[in-house]
Design goal:
By secondary structure, the protein is an alpha/beta fold. It has one helix at 48-62, and strands at residues 66-67, 77-79, 90-93, 99-100, 108-113, 120-125.
Length: 128
């Protein structure tokens, strides 16, 4: 499976072929220091135009709109709804072509899918 660029990480998991996943890195975007360069977080003080450009690049590569969360270090999971930024730390979708997204820094992303490829989820696993 090819997705993203050479800096992105692809999970080595036994997911069904139609489930795609990636973990981006900070390489390959346009954000200036100290956010350089592929910052996707719109809440850390980076130039909003740079974040928007980085997010657009991600959308272009994935071919779909990632569904972003307002992450709050909680145990809340929500149904991913395009255009709705829910307050939670995990989301799931049963709709083909939707991308659940979580942001991490010193935490870990946890990606899920069922064997039938009918449900996917992404969770922000806190460091605590």
């Amino acid at each position: 499976m090819t997705v993203g660029n050479e800096n992105w990480l692809l999970p080595d998991w036994p997911a069904p072929a139609r489930v795609r996943a990636c973990v981006t890195t900070r390489q390959g975007g346009i954000s200036a220091a100290p956010f350089d360069s592929f910052n996707l977080g719109d809440h850390v003080g980076d130039d909003p135009a740079a974040v928007a450009c980085n997010r657009q690049h991600l959308r272009d590569v994935l071919g779909c709109q990632p569904i972003w969360l307002e992450q709050v270090h909680s145990c809340v999971a929500v149904n991913a709804i395009p255009g709705v930024c829910a307050t939670a730390d995990a989301s799931w979708s049963e709709t083909p072509g939707e991308a659940c997204a979580v942001l991490t820094a010193d935490c870990l992303p946890v990606l899920f899918c069922d064997r039938a490829a009918s449900r996917v989820a992404a969770a922000h696993a806190g460091w605590r």
